[in-house]
Design brief:
Blueprint (H helix, E strand, L loop, with lengths): L13 H39 L16 H32 L1 H16 L2 H15 L4 H29 L3 H9 L4 H12 L1 H17 L1 H5 E4 L2 E4 L3 H11 L2 H30 L16 H8 L1 H31 L1 H5 L2 H29 L4 H38 L1 H16 L2 H12 L5 H27 L3 H9 L4 H35 L1 E4 L2 E4 L3 H11 L2 H32 L6
Antiparallel strand pairs: 1-2, 3-4
Helix pairs in contact: 2-3, 2-5, 2-8, 3-5, 3-21, 3-23, 4-5, 5-8, 5-21, 8-11, 8-17, 8-19, 10-11, 11-17, 16-17, 16-19, 16-21, 16-22, 16-23, 18-19, 19-21, 21-22, 21-23, 22-23
């Protein structure tokens, strides 16, 4: 019998032994940094909570001193973060319901289109009055009202993105999940959310950028004779713009850009790199995105300990509980279907909901009869003008965002350079830059109308760009390799690969951009500048003016007319394009 062969390796060089303590020291420093960051976040939330439970101060003094900007930035960031968490939960639930149930889809998608198109100021009276009445003596009422208004600028595009991703999942993936008897929770967590991850990440970035964009309207506003002000970057910039203080505007924009850059490097860049693993492909990309922050976190023991001791056991317990529940549900499925009490209860709830909607609609119609003929004619003229501006801004936005978005999405190196720039450009409120635009355009004939289109474009083109980037990043590397092997020319690559692959994302971007354009009309067509009110004809101008004057009848009529236009467009255009994306441009065999 042959003797076993032993192999002697040479001793490790001394350099290796010197590197081990260095890596341990680096890991400990990262652990300390992560721990300090978590402690700072918890302390900040505690301080914000103390402010919330304090007495209400509807007309808080807003200082324009640069020294208060870090504190204002922190308060605004807390409001945006809470609004984003609420938006993400809403989007996952709403998008799942619309994608999974056909009957619900017929109602939920047009309703979502209406909600994303209604301007923030249309939500403002009901939201703020309800929150102030709920917490009459506490600051929490004003804070919750501001957060809910921020929510109305964040939630819709994430919900549309998740819905579109679920509708584009290949059938064979669901068949595999059915063969392995996935429960609904398992299918949701292990198939549907991972498949939609890239779109969710980029639309989350767009939602946070939209929150910065609408922050000025959500932290400082007037409702009739009442003036509501909350300390924050939005109120700082709005007060500076209203006073024409260019120095304060520059300081406020610098603080906002600094926060955006920090968020990009500490949050969004690591999340984008993490989400890249969910790309549906069989060949690994030659160059993958990288993040130094994510690499440091993976070397740290704190995130690993949290995952191993908290997140992983909790997720395993939830999945096991969902599996047991699904098995038990399957065993009594026939009994449940034959339960008449359950059937009649569902019908009774549906009847009550329909009755409530009919009653509210009757009240709204009764208020509309109080309008004069001149007011109705003004509403129709304003609707036509705003519709033309919305469609023009969509066309101008798509002309440059599609090629630029594809270039960024297909190049990790370009994405690393362009991502922070795009984040900053999308997040800086156009209303803060609007005075500069006005100074130039008001000298032209019809300058306010042109300026309104420019402001709509500044607020909506990013929806298209972010979705196109997400679509280009989601293109499988093996399909790109096939195009390279077969030597596709530029036109063939766009016609056969790029445009079909990004088509569902592009439709989502155009749809959310359309809603953003309608929403932006409230500030694009009616603007306070240097003690003057500049306005042009349009539905947004009517809504802003009626909010300032407390004319609730006109505000209701303008909002309902805007909702009607959105429903018609959804029926005639967007629903058909979504069907085309679902049937023809789905990536499946």
């Amino acid at each position: 019998m042959a003797e076993p062969v032993t192999t002697q390796f040479p001793p490790q060089p001394r350099v290796f032994h010197r590197l081990v303590p260095s890596r341990k020291l680096q890991s400990r420093l990262v652990d300390a940094a992560v721990f300090l960051a978590l402690a700072a976040i918890l302390y900040g939330l505690w301080r914000a909570g103390q402010l919330w439970i304090g007495p209400a101060t509807p007309e808080a003094h807003i200082s324009l001193r640069p020294a208060v900007l870090p504190y204002y930035a922190f308060l605004s960031l807390v409001r945006i973060a809470i609004g984003y968490v609420l938006s993400l939960v809403f989007a996952l639930v709403y998008g799942y319901a619309a994608a999974r149930w056909t009957a619900a889809e017929r109602v939920l998608i047009p309703l979502l289109d209406i909600l994303q198109s209604i301007p923030v100021l249309s939500f403002l009276p009901g939201v703020m009055l309800a929150m102030v009445a709920l917490f009459p003596n506490r600051q929490a009422g004003l804070e919750l009202g501001s957060i809910l208004l921020i929510f109305t600028g964040q939630a819709w595009n994430i919900a549309f993105s998740f819905y579109a991703s679920l509708k584009s999942i290949p059938r064979e993936f669901y068949e595999v999940a059915q063969i392995y008897r996935f429960s609904s929770w398992q299918r949701f967590l292990q198939l549907e959310v991972p498949y939609a991850a890239i779109g969710l990440v980029w639309n989350s970035m767009m939602s946070v950028a939209a929150a910065w964009f609408y922050l000025m309207a959500c932290e400082m506003f007037e409702l009739g004779q009442r003036d509501f002000r909350l300390p924050g970057l939005g109120s700082y910039l709005q007060l500076a713009a209203g006073n024409g203080d260019s120095r304060a505007i520059a300081w406020g924009l610098a603080a906002m850009i600094g926060v955006i850059v920090l968020l990009d490097q500490l949050l969004w860049r690591p999340v984008i790199v993490w989400a890249d693993k969910f790309k549906m492909e069989s060949v690994e990309a030659a160059s993958a995105p990288r993040s130094a922050v994510l690499t440091m976190l993976r070397r740290s023991g704190v995130p690993v300990a949290i995952h191993d001791r908290v997140i992983h056991p909790a997720s395993e317990w939830l999945l096991a509980a969902a599996t047991r529940r699904a098995s038990a549900k399957g065993s009594v499925k026939e009994a449940k279907h034959s339960n008449p009490v359950r059937t009649w209860l569902g019908r009774a709830i549906g009847f009550l909901v329909v009755a409530a909607l009919v009653w509210l609609a009757s009240l709204a119609v009764r208020r509309l009869f109080l309008l004069s003929g001149a007011q109705v004619l003004e509403l129709l003229r304003g609707a036509a003008a705003t519709f033309a501006r919305v469609e023009g801004s969509l066309l101008l936005g798509a002309l440059w965002t599609v090629p630029v978005g594809v270039a960024i999405g297909l190049s990790p190196r370009l994405a690393r350079l362009a991502q922070p720039v795009v984040q900053i450009a999308a997040s800086v409120p156009a209303t803060a830059l609007f005075p500069i635009v006005l100074l130039f355009l008001l000298r032209l004939h019809g300058g306010m109308g042109i300026a309104a289109i420019a402001l709509m474009l500044l607020g909506t083109q990013w929806y298209i760009l972010f979705n196109v980037i997400a679509g280009a990043m989601a293109i499988p590397s093996d399909l790109r390799e096939v195009a390279r092997v077969y030597r596709f020319g530029l036109w063939d690559r766009w016609r056969e690969l790029i445009l079909p692959a990004i088509f569902p994302y592009l439709i989502t971007g155009l749809l959310t951009a359309s809603g953003g354009a309608w929403n932006a009309s409230i500030v694009a067509e009616y603007f306070h500048f240097g003690g003057r009110t500049l306005h042009t004809i349009g539905l947004g101008s009517i809504i802003s003016r009626s909010t300032d004057l407390g004319q609730m009848d006109v505000l209701l009529a303008a909002t309902l007319l805007m909702a009607l236009i959105v429903v018609v467009m959804n029926r005639l255009v967007w629903r058909r394009l979504y069907r085309l994306a679902e049937t023809r441009f789905k990536l499946e065999t």
